Amino acid sequence: AGAETVKRAVELDVASRFQESLVCYQEGIDLLLQVVKATKDEAKKHRYRQKISEYMTRAEDIKKHIEKEKQDGKYHKQIRIEENATGFGYEKLFHEYLTEVVSEVWVEDPYIRHVHQASRYLLYNFLRFCEMLIKGPCKVKTIHLLTSYDEGSGRSQQMSGLEEIQESLRNYGVTLNIEFSSSIHDREIRFNNGWMIKIGRGLDYFKKPQGRFSIGYCDFDLRPCHETTVDVFHTKHTKKM
User: Fold this and answer.
1) How far, in Å, CA of 219 to CA of 217, rounded?
2) 31, 131, 186, 237: least buried by Cβ within 10 Å?
3) What's the predicted TM-score (pTM) here?
4) pLDDT digits (tens, 9 = 90+) for 48-67
């Protein structure tokens, strides 16, 4: 398993898919270290250690390359969330980009609507996202939300929910600015430190929980997801049309 994993790491490395390659190198190194512990043949141990040393050196080089790309604003990370995958709560996706300098956030998502719209928990998702921002380590002072109006009778409930979130955020010294657009289609989240995250399904990539007392109802890390793709860019590396 260790050999297969590092083989995959090398393939990804050659293809310049460095973020995925780094993960495979790290997993492969861990597996090979377990092999070394279980091997009694000293000659084999020596060969394994040599290979592990080479892989560790390459993994460190990739880490430095990724950090430089981040600093230069040329970093692009893509995360593919598989159907029914777990472990992809908002903290998992956003936390590394929410540095202490982040004070302003823009959320563009056409479907921040009533809690029961299409049997989904869209307003609760946005509320959970706001809770993550409040916990830090960033010092968010302003959140800009651009969304679309709910249809029919759901509009008043949508407005009521958003106003409640707005008032609650105000108690934490955070201003929520809400705007509506009938033509918005794109879904993206931007931070004023330059990071931009595009999620195919927006904030609504979690499946409906099986019940109010089922695992995953409160902890989004345990909630199964819909299949979607997450792309992370820096605005230094994006072109304005």
Assistant:
1) 6
2) 186
3) 0.69
4) 888 899 999 999 998 888 77
